[in-house]
Amino acid sequence: MFDSPEQIKNLLRNTIYADRWDRRDYEAIRKNMEEFAKAHDKLMNVIDTGSNLLQDVYMSLVQPRVTPIPNEKIRPSYLINKMITKEAMSLKEWEMLRQYSLADDVAAAMAATTMEPELEEIVKRVKDLQKRAQEIEKKLQDLMEKMEEHLDLDEMIKDLDEVPPEMTEKVEDLADQITEMNEAIEQEVEEFNENLAAETTTAKDDLRKSMQKAYDKAESMETTSQAFGIEDAEWRSMPPERRLELAKKFNSERIKKIAEMFGALQRLMWAERQRTTYMVPEEIHNVTTGDDLAHIMAHELTRLGHPIHRLLFFKDFMEKNLSQYELRGIEKVGKGGIICCIDESGSMGGQKEMWAKAVGLCLLNLAKEQKRAFYGVHFGSAGRIQTFDFTDIRNVSLDDVLAFASPYQGGGTDFETPLNFSLGVLQKEFDEKGSLDGDIVFITDGQAAVGSDWLSNFKSEQERIGFNVWGVIIGGTRTAEPLSSICDGVVFDIKDLRGGSDISTILANLGKRKTSQIKG
Q1: Minimum mean pLDDT among 42-46, 82-86, 383-387: which range?
Q2: Does 333 score more than 60 pLDDT?
Q3: How many CB atoms lie within 10 A of CB 379?
Q4: Residue 121: band (very low, low, confident or very high) from pLDDT cuts 50, 70, 90
Q5: DSSP string for residues in 25-52
Q6: What is the bridge-based pairing of β-strands 468-473 and 439-444?
């Protein structure tokens, strides 16, 4: 029941509460993110409330605390949007998706963009209901005009010494009309909501499908960005167009497959690091700013108790501007470099090459995390190698990592060229430092003949300066020569790496002296 024209005028077009900062951020992301703007326009072409629907979906995904607006404060034609957001927020897929979208404007916009086709399907099915809602709004307009007319007459009567009977009758007649119109509209809105409720089951199915799709895409994007060495804070702080550009690059089946393989290996690596570095002591190193809630300063939490300061807290959180402390481990462990040689011959195409790159990316990420120098070596025919010098491991660019993960030109298989290069790197380090902690990880699918003199010289130098060669065979035999001799019998099969035992052995022993007693 509506009591005043202002109550009707103030009916809202959104179904999720958003303050001016929320709306400002939404408009900025829509302006700067072409794909999101296209999704907005497509939904608007299907239903005239589409702009607000996309904003509501976005707000439900990005806000730390989502506040739905009650039905009685929403314009009838926007109640369809309310049904959609309400049903979406009731699903476990919504909670899952918010793991990636919460307080991340770009992630929320990307998720809403992914959901747009299913949102179209939902609103298309309720087009008839939308027409009924628009008819109710026209009646609300008539009711508002009657209320204003009634108020105007009331004001006039107050200024009259004597009220004409016909004017009194007019006021009473308007009051009766307003009551009848209110009751009729209330009944129509009730029927409309009942009919809308009948659509919820099908809407839930579409929403579940769309959010699962958005979740899978976000999860894949996170795994892929991790595979290419992009930390979460770096990923979140990237401009929208840069993230979209990378999303398109990462969307290739090859890249996604490498990332999937990387994810499996990375989980094994994480388990190994947890085992070997348990209870490493840490100390406060610095005070900085960011959005790591586990390390924020105590005084920041006091802001949550005040309504205004709480908003500013969330604003600072979204802008990564909370005061936080920085920890550093105080474990003193010397860790040598890693030289990763990857066979890029013609026979390594397809799954083999992707597994090799996944292993290479895992080792590169390990090197970055542990501040080890890293060299990548792609090899094929005799005399042909492609090298990647990542000795300045803190400043490895994303483009360099993408190049390292790209396919090489193929050709034959030659072991001597990449191992000669690797040996030269290790010899230089030994000559400069008088000691050596570096290792070679050699990934191949087959065998290649090497000269007996070359092998003798290589093993002699290995013994002199002290380094390991870890073999990883993809689709070959561990004991085949000359790989077994080059690696002192320490050759692992990629299928065993996927099981975890062999990757754990490599991780636990990289840089240790010596591996000749460790057999694959």
Answers
A1: 383-387
A2: no
A3: 31
A4: very high
A5: HHHHHHHH-HHHHHHHHHHHHH-TTHHH
A6: parallel
Cα end-to-end distance, the chain, whole Å: 79
Does 338-517 carry CATH code 3.40.50.410?
A: yes
Q: Cβ of 319: how many Cβ atoms within 10 Å? A: 12
Sign of CA dihedral 288, 293, 298, 300: positive
- Dist CA 68 CA 70 (whole Å): 6
- Look up residue 239 and give its two tokens: 């401009």
Q: What are the residues facing 68 on neighbouring strands?
A: 16
229 has a pLDDT exceeding 60: yes
Q: How many residues does the chain have?
A: 520
pLDDT digits (tens, 9 = 90+) for 32-79: 888 899 999 999 999 999 999 999 999 999 999 999 999 999 999 999
Give the residue from 307, 300, 291, 289 showing the smallest Cα distance to 103. 291
Q: Give residue limits of the domains in the chain.
A: 1-127+200-251, 129-199, 281-329, 338-517
What is the distance, to the nearest Å, from the Cα of residue 470 to the centroid of all Cα atoms in its chain? 34
Q: What is the pLDDT of residue 485?
A: 92
Report the alpha-carbon distance of residue 501 to residue 255 in Å, rounded.
Answer: 26
> 385-390 and 439-444: which strand pairing?
unpaired
Are the beta carbons of 475 and 481 closer than 8 angstroms?
no
| C-alpha dist (Å) from residue 322 to 49, 64, 291, 303, 318 | 37, 15, 6, 11, 9
**Is 230:237 a contact under the CB 8 Å cutoff?**
no
Decide: 29 and 36 in contact? Cβ < 8 Å.
yes
> What mean pLDDT, rounded, does the chain reach?
84
pLDDT in tens, 421-455: 999 999 998 888 887 778 899 999 877 889 999 99
The 10 Å Cβ neighbour count of residue 446 is 18
As a whole number of angstroms, the distance between CA 278 and CA 238 comes to: 33
208 pLDDT exceeds 90? yes
> How do beta strands 374-379 and 338-343 pair?
parallel
Please state, in angstroms and rounded to a whole number, the distance separating the CA atoms of residues 395 and 374. Answer: 12
